[in-house]
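Troubleshooting entry. Yesterday's outputs looked truncated, so today I'm pasting the complete records for two proteins to confirm everything comes through intact. If either block looks cut off, that's the bug. Protein one:
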Amino acid sequence: MRKLTKSVVVVAMTVLGVGGMAQTSAPGKFDTGKREFDSKCVVCHGPAGKGNGSYSELLKVAASDLTTLKIRNGGVFPVERVYAVIDGREAIKSHGERDMPIWGKDYSKENVKASEYYVDMPYDMEGYVRARILALIDYLNRLQAK
């Protein structure tokens, strides 16, 4: 029974985390993906994702233009590869070590501090991290050049 409850919580968190992102153009709506991008990616990749962030001149390797991921992948947004880059399974030379100065291990289930929000109910930290990564991927997908 506990395993079923855990699964339901993970699914609910994912649905709530990703489902609320679709209505981002309406005023007053909260965009989790944009918030993740603004707090973790914008300094190198720039506010529009073009690779012209405020740290861009300090980088040894230029930050990539995140708006062309779909074009560079034959018209298909590379969700699996983007996920692997964000969670650290796929190393990107310009990102350096996994302890990257900008966002480091923020997407590691061991380092996310959500327990203060879920004190009286079981939660799956990996599900919480996955929802944040999927929100960021959704936002990156919306940034793609047409």
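Protein two, checking that the full record survives here as well:
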Amino acid sequence: MNTTMNLQCVHCDKTHQINLNYEDVQAWKDGALIQDALPYLNADQRELLISKTCGPCFDKMFGVDFDE
């Protein structure tokens, strides 16, 4: 079942909407690697699910990954 999650960054308080499949989220919660369970999400969206940190805040904290 597809759903939209509203996730708020704990650093800037901005709310982000992510469209995903509920069964995929459950697979991740059950132990699958997030990149395997939710391959259609980009790295920023996955990080928001993991740590509640949005991409811009993550980049401010840790810098930009120039290898990507």
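Both blocks look complete. Sanity check on protein two: The CA atoms of residues 24 and 38 lie 6 Å apart.
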